[in-house]
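Table S2 (continued). Query chain:
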Amino acid sequence: METSTVRTTLHLETTGHLGGHSLEMPVTDLVIAGWTGSNAAAIETHILELEALGVRRPKKTPIFYRGAATLLTQRESIEVVGSTASGEVEPVIFSTERGLWLGIGSDHTDREVETVGITISKQMCAKPVSTKVWNFEEVASHWNELIVRSWMTKSGQRRLYQEGPLARMRHPFELLKLYGGEGYVPEPGLVMFCGTLAVHGNLEPAELFEMELEDPVLQRRLNHSYRVTELPIEG
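Corresponding output:
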């Protein structure tokens, strides 16, 4: 893989059995893995559902979309144009000089633009990510038992939006191999979104989007949330 120049810098707060510390991460590459489900039949069903809505079938599964690293944000709010964008919780891998770390993020995407082109839609919105992260070595062996959740608040009403175990997704080691090839070791600076789960109900925009990653084995949680401001479409 080509090494890119630094595009942005993230501030990570690491937690784990070896203690915590602050880590500044210069980011060179953002990769958004799509269609990462571990059940091929379920993936095909979802592809057919999206095709019915006008979203094109991916060239392959999983597929790796390259995004602008400058889209990454740890701010408590983002701005989007119009009312057709929505978030989705994802486990996120951060490759640093101190190894791999696991956090959470939201691949906030404009769903109307998604029907034109998924790659283009990935560039339309900021990508919120957590500040707090776990050492990936501490969770790699029980990845399948980790649980992700998200909640959306709309018109003041909060509801559970997504929930499920990461057993439904491919392991990050498998994703990294599929992305970079056999024996691939990510260079420091790579951020990879690892996929998401189906929503409860329909895809909807939210005023407030909350995310959680639970580790029931080590009994801990990561949380992150952000508010969304809609900007008007004037033409």
